[in-house]
Design brief:
The chain is an alpha+beta fold and 323 residues long. The protein has one domain: Oxidoreductase, molybdopterin-binding domain (Sulfite Oxidase, Chain A, domain 2), CATH 3.90.420. Helix content is 19%, strand content 20%. It has helices at 20-32, 34-39, 43-52, 78-82, 124-129, 157-164, 202-205, 258-262, 306-309, and strands at 109-114, 120-123, 134-141, 146-156, 172-177, 197-201, 211-216, 219-220, 230-232, 245-251, 286-289, 296-298. A hairpin with a 6-residue loop joins strand 11 (286-289) and strand 12 (296-298).
Length: 323
């Protein structure tokens, strides 16, 4: 008799430990319903919330969870995730959340160009409204050897690729973040190759795991996490997950990304998680769990997503796939 096996990193849904406040909020919504909540709230308050999300109903970000993407570890608290952030545009330290509030996400224009049937310029919130959002529980592993787990709201990147209608000759999608040194003081550091750029192969971009993140914990994505659009590729080191995207360009030439330009011997194009391949300055065999009191756990190949992505790299010879 054939049986359906779960991925190696998956466990039963009832063992997942989400952030308590987030889970309580979900329970309340299920009990009394969205509509009854809204009828008890001042119209001015609702209008303000909609305005803060660029005209989108904030309830859009409380998307249905896709149970295919489970975890074998507890979720980090929302506070953990929103107060410890890498966003070099606003500084090279982790406590940039306050400075990142200077980022204005409305209006936010996204350009889709390069090897496409027709270039597109579209408002980010209009783009989001065209997509089917869902929630996924994902691991996140930084190349600095710390990690976390959180509930992302977003849509599959393959849907963005389909929307973009790339030409058959396109092999890569290159992403670019905003450029505004007047509000992002880190961009005044001329030794960095601003604006931040990253790239994926079309195969990676259309893999089932690749996600365009627009929210977290059932809320619109905070600015310090890369609002309004960011990339989420959970099998790669975090620096691949570019934030606050303004451009998607399709090309047949492999791009040289931001950190690869800065230090190519330490930060390569592929950047797939592998505990057996050390960074030039530290081991990758274990990771420090954010909010875990210094606890370290063993790092898994492809960050635990080997089953879904290993096939992308089987025929690549002579490539440095893991840093």
């Amino acid at each position: 008799m054939l049986t359906k096996s779960k991925p190696s990193w998956s466990i039963s849904e009832n063992l997942i430990t989400p952030e308590s406040a987030f889970k309580n909020r979900r329970a309340i919504l299920k009990t009394i319903g969205i509509s009854s909540i809204l009828t008890t709230i001042s119209p001015n308050v609702v209008g303000s919330a909609v305005a803060s999300t660029g005209g989108l109903n904030p309830n859009l970000f409380s998307a249905k969870r896709n149970l295919k993407y489970e975890l074998d570890r507890p979720l980090n608290t929302e506070k953990d995730v929103t107060t410890y952030n890498n966003f070099y545009e606003f500084g090279s330290h982790k406590l940039i959340s306050k400075d990142a509030q200077k980022l204005q996400t409305k209006p936010w224009t996204v350009t889709i160009d390069g090897m496409v049937e027709k270039p597109i310029i579209i408002d980010a919130h209009t783009l989001i409204s065209k997509m089917q959002l869902e929630e996924r529980l994902y691991r996140f592993r930084c190349v600095e050897a710390w990690s976390m787990a959180l509930p992302w709201t977003g849509f599959p990147m393959r849907d963005l690729v389909k929307f973009s209608r790339p030409l058959k000759k396109a092999k890569y999608v290159v992403m670019e973040t905003f450029m505004n040194s007047a509000i992002a003081k880190g961009q005044k550091q001329f030794w960095y190759p601003w604006p931040y750029r990253e790239g994926l192969t079309i195969g990676e971009a259309t893999n089932e795991l690749a996600l365009i993140g627009v929210g977290a914990y059932g809320k619109p994505l905070p600015k310090q996490m890369g609002a309004p659009l960011r990339l989420v590729v959970p099998w790669k080191y975090g620096f691949k997950s570019i934030k606050s995207i303004v451009r998607f360009s399709f090309t047949d030439k492999r791009p040289v990304s931001f950190w690869e330009t800065v230090q190519s011997e330490e930060y390569g194009f592929w950047a797939n998680v592998n505990p057996k391949v050390p960074h030039a300055r530290w081991s990758q065999e274990t990771e420090r769990v954010l909010g875990g009191g210094g606890k370290r756990i063993k790092t898994l190949i492809y960050n635990g997503y080997e089953e879904q992505v290993a096939g992308l790299y089987r025929n690549l010879k002579g490539e440095s796939l893991y840093y």
